[in-house]
Amino acid sequence: xxxxxxxxxxxxxxxxxxxxxxxxxxxxxxxxxxxxxxxxxxxxxxxxxxxxxxxxxxxxxxxxxxxxxxxxxxxxxxxxxxxxxxxxxxxxxxxxxxxxxxxxxxxxxxxxxxxxxxxxxxxxxxxxxxxxxxxxxxxxxxxxxxxxxxxxxxxxxxxxxxxxxxxxxxxxxxxxxxxxxxxxxxxxxxxxxxxxxxxxxxxxxxxxxxxxxxxxxxxxxxxxxxxxxxxxxxxxxxxxxxxxxxxxxxxxxxxxxxxxxxxxxxxxxxxxxxxxxxxxxxxxxxxxxxxxxxxxxxxxxxxxxxxxxxxxxxxxxxxxxxxxxxxxxxxxxxxxxxxxxx
Length: 342
Description:
Blueprint: H1 3-14, E1 22-26, H2 36-52, H3 58-69, H4 79-92, H5 94-103, H6 111-120, H7 127-137, H8 140-159, H9 169-179, E2 180-185, H10 190-199, E3 208-210, H11 217-225, E4 234-238, H12 241-249, E5 253-256, H13 262-279, H14 285-297, H15 311-317, H16 319-329
Parallel strand pairs: 1-2, 1-4, 2-3, 4-5
Helix pairs in contact: 2-3, 2-8, 2-16, 3-4, 3-15, 7-8, 9-13, 11-12
């Protein structure tokens, strides 16, 4: 990472001058780029199994991790908080507990992870603060966590490349930038954000890119807005409940990019929602209708808590998506395929 470039971006965020009447804050992974699925399925989840020798329960790891990171209301949460959710679920599911006991598997102890998250969750959860904590505590489990996180970043940089933005993103940015100051707010590391936005020549539409090292999304918006814009002059675009909470924490409006309906969401944004925002007719019943659709797309209850849950059936439901991700990004990668039972 270019430390000086990160410092410049951070200062730009802290000293953000208003130039347009409106402010539009934009999430990146899973919102602008179709990168959530490959980053999670091809990199994050395999790295958990690789670092902790958990390949023998691959189907369970993948099902739980996919629910946490992609298909629930925790979608888009910070990677370290996601680990907490994943390990907690793995200890709560009776079927998994039985398999773990039978195979003599040891799940990671989350004591130091929990302590790190508790100390830094209101500051910034990312490699810089984790490195600081490693130096302070000097515990092997923390060093391993940092090594895992760095391996995730380097593997993403090596494997997850040239993902174009969703259809209608560029024309939306062109339209939005005519009347609004645009910023990127994300929990993705700054280095990856900067690379991906420049890779597709989208960086010129936004005035600042804020990554996980600069704080939480709500803090990014707060530092930028700072009383410069009225509530109905600020709009957050995102694909996860955390994006919605970041908007609400700053009194801003929220437009959801619905997971699984991203192209339709961007089309509706450029043709309908963005003009409404500029005309100040977005708030109220129109936004409530969007929120209802968003809530329906991301359940809070995991499949293993449903009646008649069958792990094999549940795992196979996402199998086409996994196969597609590995076919495109890592053809030699390790992936469990469950065939249909005769």
